[in-house]
Amino acid sequence: MNRTICIDARLWGTRHTGIGRYIENLIANLPPAAVNQVVLIVPPDLKREPQLAKFTKLYASSHPYSLLSQAEMFFLLLKLRPGLLHVPHFTIPLLWPGRTVVTIHDLIKHISTGPATTTRSPLLYRLKYWGYLIIFKAAVRRSVRILVPAGFWKSELISRYHLPSDKIVVTNEGVNVQVFSAVPDHFTPPFTDPYVIYTGNLYPHKNVPLLLQSIKQLGGQMKLVIVCARSVFTDRLSRLVTGLSLQSDVRFVSSVTDSQLAGLYARARAFVTPSLIEGFGLPGLEAMAAGTPVLAARASCLPEIYGSAALYFDPHQAGELASLIKKVSASEKLRQDLIARGKAQIVKYSWVKMASLTWQTYQNALP
After folding, report:
1. CA-based Rg of the chain, rounded to a whole angstrom?
2. Residue 258: its pLDDT value, please?
3. Does pLDDT of 119 surpass 80?
4. Which of 89, 316, 361, 365 has its C-alpha lying 20 to 30 A from 194's C-alpha?
5. Cα separation, 92 vs 103, whole angstroms
6. Residue 259, Cβ neighbours under 10 Å: how many?
7. Is 56 helix (H, G, I), strand (E, B) or coil?
8. 0.90 exceeded by the pTM?
9. Residue 175: CB partners within 8 Å, gap ≥ 6?
10. Which helix (H) or strand (E) is 170 found in, with range?
């Protein structure tokens, strides 16, 4: 019986944002027994990556979202013939008939749709969206197990695809507490005035315009730092900042190290996530690790993940968020209470636990 486990690690590393961080931490925290059983499929530029040195590797050049990758993955798997394949995204190789575990991080593209959610032309967007739905459906139907980061997404999958509950395993992600609790000594924040911070991309479902409207309502009493990678969505939001005359109240920051991000979190009056849909909400847990109060939208999986360690607001009410920001900033007692709750909450989440449960799922899914 072939008990080789193949992990599709082509999106390994933080350059691939949340999915890349997930893959990186999964592989780093697999049990010692994994070394002799796991083969990784990675792009050629990771051939000499020290963190992957102990694993056997196969190399795939095509981007995971491309049509060419479907053929390339099939032939690589045909050569390896693993007992189990783990695809840590919905992008399964459709031609491969073997046993597969898939990670579904969210169903955001099912919920947040339309031309405003893409930089592509309407026709190309529609073609890509149809392709996404076809591959996604195949992934959840054909896989022997599905991993999800939150119970919220397990419920959504069961509801939308009528899947059996025992097929879906909740493997909460983790937070690198040591990284985000170590605030650098020499760090200059973007503002000398009090500020709140938002971290993440700027897709429409992130609902950042509501946060800007709240800052506007505060009339200069609170600044805002937005940490994100540059994109067309950044340009759109920049125009909104100008339209609201908030140029002196908002700073965009990109390309920060985890250490610098810890410094930004620690000096903020609060971390704010107004998102309408979240896969897991890792930035809020990072903020809690840095000792920063968290204000979160009462939406998606956020109440499940943050529990009583955050204050919640209606993601459609800018005034309610503005009031919460003002309240947290004014009350040091409330801030300290939220900080203490946050420190207690993050103990529940560990990459080691996630990797251990994933490994257990592999063993149960092998023939």
Report:
1. 21
2. 87
3. no
4. 316
5. 10
6. 13
7. strand
8. yes
9. 282, 285, 286, 288, 289, 346, 349, 351
10. strand 168-170
How high is the pLDDT of residue 1? 63
| Residue 290 to residues 86, 237, 343, Cα–Cα distance (Å) | 33, 27, 9
40 SS3 class: strand
7: three-class secondary structure by DSSP: strand
Asked whether the beta carbons of 365 and 101 are under 8 A apart, the reply is: yes
Dist CA 108 CA 30 (whole Å): 28
Q: Is the dihedral of CA 310, 312, 318, 323 positive or negative?
A: negative
- Both tokens of 214, joined, read 């709240």
Nearest alpha carbon to residue 336 among 344, 177, 226, 307: 344
Is 213 in contact with 318 (CB distance < 8 Å)? yes
CB 12 within 8 A of CB 52: yes
**248: phi > 0 → left, psi -120 to 50 → alpha, else beta; which?**
alpha
Q: Which domains does the chain have, with CATH numbers?
A: 5-174+350-365 (3.40.50.2000), 177-346 (3.40.50.2000)
Tokens of 336: 């300290």
Q: What is the mean pLDDT of the chain?
A: 94
Q: Is 220 exposed, middle or buried (CB count within 10 Å of its CB: 0-12, 13-18, 19+)?
A: exposed
